[in-house]
Write a structure and sequence with these properties.
Blueprint lengths: L2 H22 L17 E3 L4 E3 L11 E7 L4 E8 L5 E11 L6 E11 L3 E13 L6 E9 L6 E9 L4 E12 L6
Antiparallel strand pairs: 1-4, 2-3, 3-10, 4-9, 5-8, 5-10, 6-7, 6-9
């Protein structure tokens, strides 16, 4: 390989490395790090708040905090308009605060055939449960197949307890094309 060919090859590899991860890792959610508040996350069954606690120790960010007591799921919802992905990845950092026993933290994804979570609901919903620890824990990314015809998705972060008052915090939520380089 000539010197010129080697330089061209290296420049192409650098350009690819600079563009490919960001193109592959576009988060479809707004404000996934809860910077400056929790908008546009909407309440579901309770009023979520922003906690100053941040999974990465940031002083300018925080986390979405949900306090619940009872057997009815509560949390926060956000709608995301989809691109052309055949599957999306969902991951986040999560912890519970101040309780030694816990039921489950829930993540739901509901699919819709129109933008902005309008139109008709498309089954199946995706549901995953976790038993968060008192330490910030990164939930291993998992891939979720996008149903045929889905244009938008409603992402629900929440929890349900068995009567105890439970506080759960969510941060660094990712919902988008599967990430190849992490």
């Amino acid at each position: 390989m000539s010197c010129r060919s080697a330089v061209v090859f290296l420049l192409a590899m650098v350009a690819l490395s600079l563009t490919a991860p960001s193109a592959l890792a576009q988060n479809l959610l707004d404000n996934p790090t809860m910077t400056g508040g929790i908008t546009p996350w909407s309440p579901f069954g309770t009023t979520p708040t922003q906690s100053a606690d941040d999974a990465n120790g940031s002083l300018v960010s925080g986390s979405l905090q949900v306090v619940m007591a009872g057997d009815i799921p509560v949390g926060a919802i956000q709608c995301a308009n989809l691109g052309s992905e055949a599957a999306v990845e969902l991951s986040m950092t999560i912890r519970r605060v101040g309780v030694t026993s816990f039921s489950d933290a829930y993540i739901y994804v509901n699919w819709y055939d129109a933008a902005d979570c309008g139109g008709s609901f498309l089954p199946p919903s995706e549901t995953t449960t976790f038993d968060p620890s008192e330490s910030w824990t990164r939930v291993t990314p998992f891939n979720v197949p996008v149903p045929s015809g889905a244009v938008s998705a409603q992402v629900f972060l929440g929890a349900i307890s068995s009567g105890n008052v439970i506080t759960v915090q969510y941060d660094d939520v990712y919902f988008g094309a599967p990430v190849i380089f992490e």
